[in-house]
Structure formats: C-alpha cells, structure tokens
Amino acid sequence: MSKSTDALPVPTDPDRYLSSNPYAAAAVSLWGGSTGAVEDLDSYAKSANTLKGYRSDWDGFAEWANSQGIPIPSVVDGAVDLPADVPVAVIKVYLAEKQDDLKAATLARHVSAIRHWHHQAGLVSPTDHPEVKRSMAGLQRKHSYQPARARPLFLEDLRRGLPAGDDTKTIRDRAVLLVGWWGALRRSELVSIEAVHLSDHPEGVVISIPKSKTDQTGQGQQVALHYRDDETIDPVRSLRAWTALVEGPGPVFRSVDRWGNTRPRPIDGDRVSSLVKDLCERVGLDPAEYSAHSLRAGFVSECDRRHIPSGAVRAVTRHTSDAMLNVYERPGELFDGSAGAYFEGV
Length: 346
Description:
Strand content: 5-15%
Strand order of the largest sheet: 1-2-3
Number of helices: 15
Mean pLDDT: 84
Largest sheet: 3 strands, antiparallel
Number of domains: 2
CATH topology of the largest domain: hpI Integrase, Chain A
Shape: globular
Structural class: mainly alpha
CATH superfamily of the largest domain: Intergrase catalytic core
Oligomer: single chain
Helix content: 40-55%
Distance between the termini: 67 Å
Low-confidence stretches: 1-8
C-alpha cells in the first residue's frame, strides 16, 4: 500500500496537489493559514482515555514488531512517525501469533489503534484490507467467549446489606449505594457527580450527567431519583442527608478521612466497587462476583423481575434501544417466556 493524499481532507503532499488538483493552490493556502484552528478542533474528536488506550495498544504492537526485526516507532508527543504503512502480512502474522496470549477483544482493540495511528500519519491503514478483516473474523469465531459480567444486586439484597450507622463515612456510603442503584449509574458517572449537577424536584431529585459512555459528545442526560415510601432505601433522603454534610461546590461524593472529615477530592471507582463487595459479604453473597456495575445491572434485572416496561427502564439507564438491555440478567423474561411456565399444576 502507498501513501494516499487525495483521499485525505488535508494536503499532506503539496507538490502532488499542485500538479494534479485544480483546487490545490487554494487548499495549500487555506491549510497553512488555519492549521492551528483545525488541529485544535480535531483534538476533541477522541476522548483522553481513548487516546491513552490507543497509545498503549500501539506500543504493544510496536514492541512485538521490533522483536521481529521490524523497526516500528512508538508514539511520541501524540504522533507516530511512520515512514510508510505497515504491510498487511505483518498485521496478519501479529494476530496469528498473539491469538493465544491476548483475548479476541483485546486484539480487536489493537487493530483499532493501528488504524488510528495510520490515519493520524496520513496513511491508508492495512487494517481496512479484506485479508486483515478475514483474520479478525477467524479470530472471533475460533476464540469466541462470553465476557465475564458482574452479577446483579437485587433490591432485597441491597436493603439487607446497606451499612448501618450515623457517622460521616457511613452516611456517605449509604448515599453512594442507593443513588448508584436507583439511578442505574455507571461508576464513572457516580463519582463524577458535582453539586451543580443536582436540582430539586417536588417528586425527588434530578441528576444531570454532562458526559457518559453513551454520550461522548457531552449533549447531557438527566436521571430522576424518586422519593421512596420505605425510607431505608430512599435515595433522595439518603442523598440529602449526605449533602448536608458537604460544604461548597465540587464533587458530591467526596473522600472522608479517618477522623470523619470530608476532603475536596472525589471517591474513585474502586471505592464504589469495594462498597458493593462489602455489602455482598454482609448478606452472604460472594463478593468476587460483584462490582460497582452490579448496582446498574441490579436495577435493570429488578425492573425485569417486576415486569416494568422497557421504555421506563431506558429512561433511567439511558440505553438507546431494548437490545442493549438484553445483555443484563433478565429473570422475569427468562421464566415468563419459557414453555415450562405453561405447565400449570404440574
């Protein structure tokens, strides 16, 4: 494969443009005068975490290539100085040799990184070649697997396992667990909630989520937390009991030191997982099977058990389709839709 310029929106090879494209002179002039603005805009195309993953995955590929005597550069200052596109054969051998060391999903991520850095260097990516796509299809078929998922935490287990006490840390922990469960929040969303994101409502509290996994462009989403008749599992009262102890703007769920003083930094996702595991241990569940995601999964599974319409569930989870709900454990649908349910009296 060779370097492609006319397929790109930028004149990476001005000489070729000037000789073959009637718009080339204007393009070169515009590009030279606005490169800074264009680069600034392009920098928002991928999240920082995505780029961090691309760097790590590319460097893993480059390390393997160099061990094979193929001098492929690492990422330096947010770019890869590739002199040419990596041959398709190299990618196919890489996938074949790494298939037993890395999961298919990990290698698919590596392929995405290889595509990204080729495009970033103005090159046609070998990952778009049919031969690489054939290797990926074979990889996924040969090494198909069911990804491990956190078990759902059902409402009754949540109720029985909530921490008891009136000290600062316990009040916070109860609020984290209840808001996370009733809001079906991802742990990244939960720990990112700030005071400015909360607004009162006659029926509870509205949480504004500025950016999430399914809203990478930051259009914003909202989640309603309702008052519950049972105050022991009421997320609104629990949240207000906690926020009464937190002063000023900033993160809602903050760190608490050993003396019960709140700190300005937010708790991290690992702490949320620890709270869920501690709760599970209190009620006799295996903590190893649960994580922070068990709050979100538990809400979806509990809704299914109670036959709550999927549209109402998605209003909380913010899934864009019912298909996305199917990845969660749905015991109600499983048993009600089974032929065994029709054997009455047997």
